[in-house]
Amino acid sequence: MHKKNVLITTSHFHPNVGGVETHLNDLVLALNKRNWEVIVACYKPLARDIKIPFVEKKSKKLLIYRMPWVGFNLVHLLTPYPVLEFLYLFPGLFLVNLYALIKHPEINVIHSQGLVPGVVGIVLGRIFNKRVIVSTHNLYFFPQNGYYKTFSAWILSFADTILTLSNQSKDEIARIGVPKEMIKPFRYWLNLKTFKPKDKIIARGKLGLNESFIVFFVGRLIETKGVKILMQVSKNLKNVTFIFAGLGPLQEDLNKLSAKQKNLKYVGLLFPEKVRLYMSASDVVAVPSTVDEGYGRVAMEALACGTPVFAANKGGLNEVVTKDVGLLVNPNPKDYNNAVKFALTNRKILSNLAKNTRRYALRYFGEKNVEKIIDSYEGK
């Protein structure tokens, strides 16, 4: 392949924030570094009122088209209803990608992020005779029967390659009838020069934290992220400091509880460099999601910062966190309570886990992971 021009089709992109959006930033940087020219076709932020132009040329190798669309937080409200979500997201995304393909005939690969963008990419790929790659970033929990499963299997079978974040996701896609040889797992990666350990004492000093045992949570403050589990554990373990960062519906509950409990702190939404500082300052980073995650970016970041992770034994998390760098815990208050107590009373074991984290991150979370995506672009 001589031309290196890819169209990234996605519902969400910067300035949206989230695991997928962060991955796409990493992907664009890695592709540009390898002389790929990237065009992104997406929506303007759907959940936030941000003024941003339709066309934005970020560099010689990155051009972004952002489609204006009806917001009102519908993108989150419709998540439990796949058909309605599809009807909401498909039309505008189809139009902005159609525009990009007409405007830029040099595009030779369409890389779609998720199921709805996947349909957009596959339809347009057939029309314009382009190679189509679909990345899945979540588990879809397809029903055993019905139109949702049948349509998804049929449309995905027209992709050239499907990239999944975990073996569990690969198995899920294969179970609905997509040929296994089309499905290839890949991993996210991190900038390991940015995500690196900092001295725990210095980090705590900068944050004004005391010498107690610290458990840190960062993410959307919603029930399915396990926030209520840690809130309950904090009531039982008063000799442990629990620090929560992020925004979401449960932030008011955290504010109220932090006013009553000295061992619970809610620090709001943090800039990335502050998140890394809290990770280095903590003894454990908790990822207690109650639903299957496609992959665990927070877990990756914590391990790269030198901190063991206590992750829910669900979804792709058990492919990120091994017994060498953390614990897999059933996501309920009793088991998380026991896990933190175990760490408190077995500091030597926790210290050994911490010693393994950086080496583990260097082995599995480096930018070399982009090569699997590029191989799929090139049909290897």
TrEMBL record:
It comes from the Bacteria. The lineage of its organism: Bacteria, Candidatus Woeseibacteriota. Coiled coil: none annotated. Keywords: Membrane, Transmembrane, Transmembrane helix. This is Glycosyltransferase subfamily 4-like N-terminal domain-containing protein. Residues 203-359 form the Glycosyl transferase family domain. Gene3D superfamilies: Glycogen Phosphorylase B (3.40.50.2000). The keyword ATP-binding does not apply. Residues 17-182 form the Glycosyltransferase subfamily 4-like N-terminal domain. Pfam families: Glyco_transf_4, Glycos_transf_1. SUPFAM superfamilies: UDP-Glycosyltransferase/glycogen phosphorylase. One of its GO terms (molecular function) is glycosyltransferase activity. The chain crosses the membrane at residues 63-80.
